Amino acid sequence: MIDFGTTSQRFYADLFEKSVHLRKGAFLQRPYTWPDLDLLLEQMEPAEPFFRLFGKGPLPPDTYSEEVQELGLRRRRLIRSRFDALLAEGATLVLNRLEVFSPPSRRLCAEVGRFTGQQTTANGYVSFGGEGTFGQHWDVHDVFACQLIGRKRWRVYPPTLPYPLANHTSDRSPDPCPQSPVLDCTLEPGDLLYIPRGWWHHATPLDVASFHVSVATFAPTIMDYVLWACGRYLPAQQLARKSLGGGADCLNEVAAVTQMVAAALLDPNHVAEFMKLVMSRQHPPEESGPGLLSGLVLKPPVKKP
After folding, report:
1. Are residues 109 and 238 in the same domain?
2. What tens digit of pLDDT does each residue of 125-166 get?
3. Alpha helices in 48-189, H assignment, sequence order
4. Cα gap 91→63, rounded to integer Å
5. How many angstroms separate the CA atoms of 265 and 247, rounded?
6. Whole-prediction pTM value?
């Protein structure tokens, strides 16, 4: 479905966490149409955290949906007239974890996951104009922005906090977004944009309806490996289990344990063990296809004489 414009090997050598990458016409086929999205809106319950509408900040669900009781169950139902009016006024619809609800997004995640070898998830964004929702910001994961319908302007800026962790946020960044972007482009239907984590970016709607899916990828960090290795191998070392005292030998003992840590970290077998564990915990979305029921042939009931 996706032509990334490079191989996985070249991606990791030249682009991964190093540079943005724009691939025009990356999609060999378009996974969504507006009728597909209309059908998705009918099927999804407009409830947080999966369904959210943003104007100048998050909009309360009561502004575009109502609570109803259907078949004895309470659920939220979209008030389509209010919802459409808010979109027309410049609000942005955000569909979080879209791969859970939509087979085309599940296929997008699966393809990006195969290309990167990483776990993936997807958010969808629908806009009909406006000034944009999130302003200049950066994410703590890499992003593959897939422009599927309409156009959107993207400006990408270099990082001020390289390789942010999950507890870092751009709204609390001590350094503001740089003034000059490294990329200022308009994504058109079928375009793909890779943005490394920590790189500032600003997506701005144009005066045209737009739908894009951002596929996020999550790679283990060196810190993850260090913490895992310490917890995995240090408990077996008697010296590492000692209490931290304040005597003259304290620093010497810490130095000795540090050497143990270094030996554990630099063992290639330990690196391989960690990566195997990481991969075993990843369950990438499966592509949709014919299931068990599709192969069943239902026979008409036999009429009794």
Report:
1. no
2. 999 887 666 889 999 999 999 999 999 999 999 999 999 999
3. 80-88, 103-116
4. 12
5. 28
6. 0.87
